[in-house]
Task: inverse folding
């Protein structure tokens, strides 16, 4: 579902990723880890085409990103749900509108949008807060809105970048349970984190980035 072959990426002279090769299979739940600044976010950005590799091939959900046209990128992104490292909710829009935005872009009928958004807000247990502005939610609730927004277009690949960043243990657990639920439906999940607590004991594949390369792979 996600394939990297000989991928390298530099920012100016700063080599962030060098000759990276790995595959995440359809339906897998995997982690990418490594110290701060090692290139985890950069790697995820390559997956959803926010950055382009200098070398190598990347295939995501059947799209060869080397050949993908600018106009096709929105279709790729519809298939890739993303939870960014910073929340990025629109502050002046309600919970409902933040989640609905992804669907409005796709020209969906308002009634259908209402149903879809209602459904995912129920899943993250925030239906009762749909008319509230993000600033009036707790950090964990805001993160659940971000997850709902990423889920609403029913992506085949789900990326999350440090999804439990500042959240307490209990809230982190709730968030991780949501990812497991998403994965159970067949969605491929890739999580970037520096936190061992997230992958320890999960029995999932963990790729370790170090010095621009995948240093090792373990079962968490
Ligand atoms: N747009 C950019 N321009 C220049 N350098 C960048 C850019 N984005 C990232 N970098 C650099 O690339 C390196 C990797 O950054 P990246 O954000 O991918 O790391 P990370 O592993 O996600 O770190 P963290 O755990 O702190 O989130 C860092 O040294 C960073 O300064
Ligand atoms: Mg990062």
Result:
């Amino acid at each position: 579902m996600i394939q990297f072959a000989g991928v390298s990426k530099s920012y100016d002279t700063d080599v962030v990723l060098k000759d990276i090769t790995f595959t995440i299979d359809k339906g897998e739940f995997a982690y990418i880890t490594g110290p701060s600044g090692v290139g985890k976010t950069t790697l995820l950005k390559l997956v959803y085409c926010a950055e382009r590799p200098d070398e190598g091939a990347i295939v995501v959900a059947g799209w060869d990103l080397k050949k993908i046209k600018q106009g096709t990128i929105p279709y790729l992104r519809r298939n890739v749900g993303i939870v960014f490292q910073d929340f990025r909710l629109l502050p002046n829009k309600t919970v409902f509108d933040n989640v609905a935005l992804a669907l409005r872009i796709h020209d969906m009928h308002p009634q259908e949008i209402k149903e879809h958004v209602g459904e995912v807000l129920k899943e993250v247990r925030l239906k009762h807060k749909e008319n509230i502005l993000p600033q009036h939610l707790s950090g964990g609730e805001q993160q659940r809105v971000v997850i709902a927004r990423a889920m609403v277009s029913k992506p085949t690949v789900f990326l999350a970048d440090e999804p439990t960043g500042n959240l307490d243990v209990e809230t982190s657990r709730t968030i991780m349970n949501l990812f497991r639920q998403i994965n159970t439906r067949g969605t491929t999940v890739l999580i970037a984190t520096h936190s061992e607590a997230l992958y320890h004991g999960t029995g999932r594949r963990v790729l370790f980035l170090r010095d621009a390369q995948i240093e090792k792979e373990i079962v968490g």
User: Anything to note?
Assistant: The chain has a mean pLDDT of 94. The CA atoms of residues 140 and 176 lie 12 Å apart.
